[in-house]
Amino acid sequence: MTELRPEASSRGLILDSCQVLNLFASRRMAEILSSIGCPILISEHCVAVEALWVGSGRRNEPNTEFETVDLKPLFVRGVASMAKLESAQEQADFVHLATVMDDGEAIAGAIAISRDIAVGTDDRKAVAVFGSLVPPVPTVSTCVMLSTWAERRQVDRRELREAISAIRRRARFVPPTGDPLSAWWKELARAA
Description:
With 192 residues, this protein is an alpha/beta fold. 53% of the residues lie in helices and 12% in strands.
């Protein structure tokens, strides 16, 4: 397994909307974020506009399961903090990044650049853009987040499989084949 590299996020980590949805869908978000060992930020935009619900099935069909994403307990307990674009430079970086990626990733990236922190994202385009910046903005995938949680908290395979299964079902997430931990994830998902 690949554990989170301390140098990638020692100063902090801002999650994009997709990663917020993935981790919330796991039903273990507080535990996962607490295991990371650095300040965790989530943008105000993510909370208010993008990361609104997780679920399985299709709307208006019987047996569908939807849950509103409620991050307030994470903020109250200090597991994560709300962030917003604060400086003119963050605004400018957002405008520049928004020309090549979605607003949620662009906001996370602008905050990460300004505050010298990593971005939690699985968006291929965002990962490529952040990696091409000088200096590059480190990125952390959902797979690495779960792997780090499993390693640091000695999570048993059953719990890990349940979290991965919940993410697949409720957030409809499967890691991209380019993720170094995609084979690890898929092996656990098959056993679920």
